[in-house]
Specification:
Length: 441
């Protein structure tokens, strides 16, 4: 049975905070594929973000060093809706890689994991995982995935140098945020809010990152939403994220090239200060370290502001996960399961840390973060340590529609109103809920 939202929120925040200070330990040795001596080759599919590729390659290299006779070949796929469709197609056609990285949470349920993925419920390493993460990679009483990466937040990354120059304070309410935007627009040539719709997935943060504020206003929202009793278009708290995105567009606070700008363009603007605030996943911290290391000390993080400063806090995501499809069989499956065990170990965490800058705490017992994490990571940890964080909706409900990113692009581009987009998203969600066989839809 799924925990109530408040319990699961406390579980995630407590475990995430504990992971920040957890003491590292060495991993036990892993046996090689052995047997016929001919070796085994594993295909390992990940998304094509630079940090995702670096992480996958780091894991593959470290695993191969401990497993003579096993070769791991990293493959890439697009991000966003295109990548989602590719994963579903490859699973449906029996052409999936031996290990692949995909979302935890509600989007996993759309893959029908009980029918398509190899369960790892009986693997001893699952006992060392954050309970909220385990819930996010489970279905039909079975566990399916190993965590790739760290806890991350949907938040506003901002240029601290511009904030200091203008004497701005971190906004805790939406009115304060819009007031800051007005000052930036009046006193600089920089874009107050960065948007990068060339890559549609980046458009969703005004809605998805606002869920902490929704949950504070309506604590029973996840249960009511799952039961089909509350909708985005009929909940004032849930609708607010769409309305905020429209308000930023209508006020002219976005970069002029928002429709063609890429994610990397957004990070460059943030680093240079030609854009001041970027609502985005904090996984971007690692990519800023890789591409704009000289600016990383000038980048901070604050939660998406809502109506009440007293309850303002971060919306957080558990990591993506590595899965093995049921089409992987025999010695290759055995090697794939050993690879999952490695990923979910302190040695795997260390390989990920060496490959890409951690952007939050790990969810594996015994994993530790380096002492010199960027200031933006410390900002995320500060919210977690004081309990000012809540899981994203997709970890509290199995319901999530696949077309949100297209609708938020339309709202942010002035093509569609917030109210119309929310209503269309409710229709999108209903289709998925019906596919899952949920009552009330």
């Amino acid at each position: 049975m799924r925990k109530p939202a408040s319990q699961r929120a406390r579980a995630l925040v407590a475990l995430a905070a504990a992971a920040v200070v957890a003491t590292g330990c060495s991993a036990g040795s892993l046996t090689s594929s052995g047997g016929d001596g001919e070796g085994v080759t594993l295909s390992f599919l990940t998304s094509n973000g630079p940090e995702d590729i670096a992480t996958a390659e780091g894991l593959a290299k470290a695993f191969m060093a401990q497993n003579e006779g096993v070769t791991v070949e990293v493959e890439q796929r697009p991000q966003g809706t295109e990548g989602d469709n590719l994963v579903k197609t490859r699973l449906a056609t029996g052409d999936m890689a031996d290990v692949f990285v995909y979302n935890s949470g509600s989007l996993l349920q759309a893959l029908d994991p009980a029918q398509t993925l190899v369960p790892v419920t009986d693997q001893p390493w699952t006992k060392d995982l954050d309970k909220t993460f385990v819930d996010a990679v489970s279905g039909n009483g079975q566990v399916f995935g190993a965590p790739v990466g760290t806890v991350q937040a949907g938040a506003v990354m901002y240029n601290k140098a511009v904030y200091a120059q203008l004497g701005l304070k971190i906004p805790q309410t939406w009115d304060e945020f819009m007031a800051n935007n007005a000052v930036i627009a009046e006193r600089t040539d920089a874009a107050p809010v960065i948007q990068t719709y060339r890559e549609t997935w980046t458009s969703q943060l005004f809605v998805l990152g606002d869920f902490r504020n929704v949950l504070q206003a309506e604590p029973s929202f996840p249960e009511q939403y799952t039961a089909g009793k509350v909708k985005y278009a009929t909940s004032a708290a849930a609708l607010r994220g769409f309305q905020h995105q429209q308000a930023v567009h209508d006020a002219g606070y976005m970069n002029e090239d928002f429709g063609s700008a890429t994610y990397n363009d957004g990070l460059r603007m943030l680093a240079e200060g030609t854009g001041v605030q970027y609502p985005i996943l904090t996984s971007a911290i690692g990519e800023l370290v890789a591409s704009h290391a000289d600016a990383i000390d000038n980048i901070g993080v604050f939660a998406l502001p809502g109506p009440d400063a007293a309850t303002n806090g971060l919306t957080v995501w558990t990591p993506n996960a590595a899965y093995t499809p049921q089409t992987t069989q025999g010695p290759v499956r055995d090697a794939a399961l050993r690879f999952l065990a490695f990923i979910a170990s302190p040695a795997g965490c260390q390989a990920m840390t060496e490959a890409a800058t951690p952007t939050g705490p790990y969810v594996v017992k015994g994993c530790e973060l380096p002492a010199d994490v960027p200031p933006a990571v410390q900002d995320v940890q500060e919210y977690l340590s004081r309990g000012a964080a809540s899981p994203a909706l997709e970890f509290l409900s199995p319901v999530k529609g696949p077309n949100l990113e297209n609708l938020t692009v339309e709202v942010g581009s002035g093509i569609r109103s917030a109210e119309d987009a929310a209503a269309l998203y409710d229709q999108d969600v209903a289709q998925q809920a019906q596919q899952l066989g949920l009552e009330g839809w």
